[in-house]
Each structure stands twice: as C-alpha cells, then as structure tokens.
TrEMBL record:
This is Fibronectin type-III domain-containing protein. The lineage of its organism: Eukaryota, Metazoa, Chordata, Craniata, Vertebrata. PROSITE patterns: FN3. Keywords: Repeat. The keyword Repeat applies. Pfam families: fn3 (PF00041). CDD domains: FN3. PANTHER family: FIBRONECTIN TYPE-III DOMAIN-CONTAINING PROTEIN (PTHR46708:SF2), TENASCIN (PTHR46708). Residues 37-127, 128-215 form the Fibronectin type-III domain.
C-alpha cells in the first residue's frame, strides 16, 4: 500500500514547523543582539563655552562599553566623539547663550548603534565686567562697564535697570558700554544692574551697584 500522500503532508508540516522555529529563533537572536541604550544624560557643569556631561551604564551590562556622543545647535554642523570605557565627557569650544542638543548611543564593535538618549542645555551668557559709576549729580549719574571676556566680537546689547527703595525698576537697552541715567531724585540711593543680552534673546546674570545721588 502506498503512503506517498501521507508522507507529503508530513514532510510539508515538518518543513513548515522548521521554518516557524527558524523565524522565532532569528527574532530571538535579534533581541539578544540588540544593543541596550545608555542611561539618562546628566549635565555636571555648564559654562559659556563648555559642557561637562555624564550618562548611565546600559542596564544590566558590565565591563567596558563604547559610546558615541554627538552634539550641535540649530543651524550648525554637528560634532561627534567616541568614548570607550567611560561615562562622562567634557566638551569645549562652544558658543555662549546657545541651545545645544547632546545625543549618546551605545556602539558595538561592528558599528551597530543602540537607540539614542538625548538632552539639551543652554550655555551660559557671561555677565558684563567692571561696572563703574561717575559724574554723580543730584538727578543723574553715568554708568560704565566692559564686555565679558571673550565676547568682544559677539553681537550683543545691554539691559540696564535702576530703582530706589519702594519703586518699580526702570529699564533701558543700549548697544554702548555706558549709560547716563537722568531724572533721578536728589539724595536718594539707587540700585542699578546691567545684563548682557544676545541677539537670540538669551541674557546673562546681572551685575549690580548701589549709588547715592547728591543733595
């Protein structure tokens, strides 16, 4: 008696079963081979021209890992560095008052990369220097200051604020490094501040001085 038909059915089932097993094994192998991403990015320090950042080890992995760090801000070419066996990096040569995005991926020996982790930070805008006051009169005085070190060629303006006790601050903007304030009250103590303002609107922390007008 011939069993050829039964043999064909059995062979087809066996082949189909083998194919399903191989597909499942392949998918499982892909999961095993998938590189785990780094932990979250943390900014350790931020200055006007540098950022120090760290990131966590990929969950469950031990031993030295290799990472690729890329960074840049809008409208500029991105930069990239490889970090092996460490979890932190200090990057210098940045521009003040710019928002930088940092991406970190785990990188395999064969060039494969994990899903990236990302974080952004704005570099510090440096404050003006050497705030001085002269020509103090009963109703006016003149402020002088210098641009922050390294900012001499950077387009910027300055926000000036002044007030006396119990009054709302009066503000003004200038591109110069001096400003004369008028219409003040005689024999009154004024608090003045000057901040750097970049073309993108980012501001520095103010520098302060206290002046008393003459009688």
């Amino acid at each position: 008696m011939s069993h050829k038909g039964h043999d064909t059915v059995f062979h087809n089932r066996e082949q189909a079963g083998r194919q399903v097993f191989e597909e499942e094994h392949h998918q499982s192998q892909n999961l095993v081979d998938e590189l785990l991403p780094p932990g979250e990015i943390e900014f350790l320090s931020v200055t006007s021209d540098s950022v120090s950042l760290s990131w966590g080890s990929p969950e469950g992995l031990t031993g030295p890992q290799r990472f690729r760090v890329t960074w840049g801000c809008e409208g500029q070419t991105t930069s990239s560095l490889r970090v092996k066996g460490g979890y932190r990096l200090e990057i210098s040569g940045l521009k003040p008052g710019e928002k930088y995005q940092f991406n970190v991926v785990t990188e395999g020996d064969d060039g494969r990369q994990s899903r990236l982790v990302s974080a952004s930070v704005i570099t510090v805008v440096p404050s003006p220097r050497q705030l001085k006051v002269d020509q103090i009169g009963a109703t006016s005085f003149t402020l002088h200051w210098s641009k922050a070190e390294g900012m001499e060629q950077t387009p910027q303006r300055f926000l000036i604020s002044h007030c006396c006790h119990g009054t709302e601050p009066t503000t003004d903007i200038t591109e110069d490094c001096n400003k004369t304030l008028f219409d003040l009250e005689p024999n009154n103590q004024y608090t003045v501040s000057v901040s750097t303002v970049l073309t993108n609107g980012e501001q520095s922390k103010p520098v302060f001085s206290t002046i008393c007008t003459s009688k």
